[in-house]
């Protein structure tokens, strides 16, 4: 009752300029968030970004320069000055495959106190292997012994794999049914021999048929006649002729 009539009870609206300013700030914040989300990469994309180039996997560059010798080579040997009987091997063009195998084999040696490796940077195709041994031996001797054992193990694995494949092939062949008169399964040499035998048989048949035809000449009239037949004669097999008799063939009859 005490309020004047015609007044709105809602709070007054902000000025138009203030509204436009808030909208511009919201738009800028949204654009900034969109750019930040676009800049973020998925785990798969990060893996592709950190992938080593093919040329770097099989070739050495200036990064493989050994400061001690001033040359580029695969293995750098750095003695550890803080710990006795310890050496750090920098091995280029290798990864976890060799590093983990060497570490496990070195730890089997009782004379090895510590063996470990790391990949310092994913874009550098190299590993750092650190080995510490007892004073009675050296890290180099321990590494050589581990490599020798790994070669023997890998050779045994290959032999076992070949034996397993051969046994599997023999088992599969024993289960297959025996095919009888299967010409498609014959070796090429047997097919060639069969072809040669067929050619020889065809030649023998041709030679036997040619014996029934003799391209000879014989007189067909008496001695007083001047007309002689120079046509080939056939051996008679009919009309009352014997096997050794001949029947003249006149050229006029053939015409």
Structure notes:
- By secondary structure, the protein is of the alpha+beta class.
- Helices cover 44% and strands 14% of the residues.
- The strands form two sheets. It has a four-stranded antiparallel beta sheet with strand order 1-2-4-3, covered by helices on one side. The protein has a three-stranded antiparallel beta sheet with strand order 5-6-7, with no helix packed on it.
- It is extended, with a radius of gyration of 50 Å.
- The termini are far apart.
Helix content: 40-55%
Total strand count, please?
7
Q: Strand fraction band?
A: 5-15%
Low-confidence stretches: 216-220, 222-241
What's the arrangement of strands in the largest beta sheet? Answer: 1-2-4-3
**String of helices and strands:** HHHEEHEEHHEEEH
Average pLDDT taken over every residue: 74
Rounded radius of gyration (Å)? 50 Å
Helix/strand-derived category reads: alpha+beta
Q: How does the overall form come out from the CA principal axes?
A: extended
Q: What is the count of helical runs?
A: 7
Largest sheet: 4 strands, antiparallel
Give the termini distance in whole angstroms: 148 Å
Topology:
Blueprint: H1 16-39, H2 43-49, H3 54-58, E1 75-79, E2 86-92, H4 96-107, E3 112-118, E4 126-133, H5 139-175, H6 188-210, E5 213-214, E6 233-235, E7 246-248, H7 251-254
Helix pairs in contact: 4-5
Characteristic terms for this protein:
three-stranded antiparallel beta sheet; alpha+beta; 255 residues; single chain; four-stranded antiparallel beta sheet
